[in-house]
Hints:
- Its EC number is 2.7.1.71.
- Catalyzes the specific phosphorylation of the 3-hydroxyl group of shikimic acid using ATP as a cosubstrate.
- This protein has helices at residues 22-33, 40-48, 51-58, 60-76, 100-105, 118-125, 138-156, 168-178, and strands spanning 12-15, 36-39, 88-91, 110-115, 159-162.
- The chain is of the alpha/beta class.
- The model has no long low-confidence stretch (mean pLDDT 91).
- The protein contains eight helices and five strands.
- Adenosine-5'-triphosphate binds at residues 18-24, 41, 91, 94, 124, 131, 163, 166-168.
Amino acid sequence: MPGEKAEDSRPIVLIGPMAAGKSAVGQALAALLHGEYLDSDEVFVRENGAIADYFAKHGEDSFRELEAEIVARAISGQLTVSHPEAPRIISLGGGSLGSATSREVISRCHVVYLEADLATVLPRIARDTGRPMLAGDAAERWLALFDQRRPLYESVAQLTVDVRHGSPEDFALEIARALDLPGITAKDGRA
Ligand SMILES: Nc1ncnc2c1ncn2[C@@H]1O[C@H](COP(=O)(O)OP(=O)(O)OP(=O)(O)O)[C@@H](O)[C@H]1O
Ligand SMILES: O=C(O)C1=C[C@@H](O)[C@@H](O)[C@H](O)C1
Ligand SMILES: [Mg+2]
């Protein structure tokens, strides 16, 4: 029909640094689109236990191998439980783009980069014990990792959302509008 938006079954993948809100925004977006939400960190924990414990026992390299496998399974639809045509929203672990395979795998998706800064995430990471990559001085570690990874996020992002001011629901609507998804109007979010 003229004027009707074409179906677009590509998953929406959320990337960005630790505590930017990938999980919170991903869940809000799934609710808005009546879609399925998947989180590579949650899948990891379900299959292997707490991330901090896994790092302590097996080290980061082993974690990254399993993480890359989970990303591939998530994107390919192997972990999907809902209707095959339901929108799929997938949040990736903050360090997952270190894998060239994962960068390649997500190139066929809508890739949305949640861009944050230290001031925004500081209250969220200050008392963190679950993120082994932030062990020690969490603020210093977050900044160092962000400096190192920012070029990777930027190189794969198709849409960048500034998440410094607003709620997860605000950002979900911004993403849905920017991607011009079927069923979303500019005015209130739903057709
Ligand atoms: N826009 C927001 N406003 C206020 N709080 C937020 C916002 N986005 C996320 N949060 C809160 O910040 C914390 C971290 O968010 P979240 O877990 O979604 O980040 P993440 O990017 O998935 O982090 P990780 O790298 O650990 O997976 C959570 O407590 C969440 O509720
Ligand atoms: O930035 C990282 O390296 C990480 C981010 C988290 O999402 C987890 O994937 C894990 O704690 C490692
Ligand atoms: Mg998360």
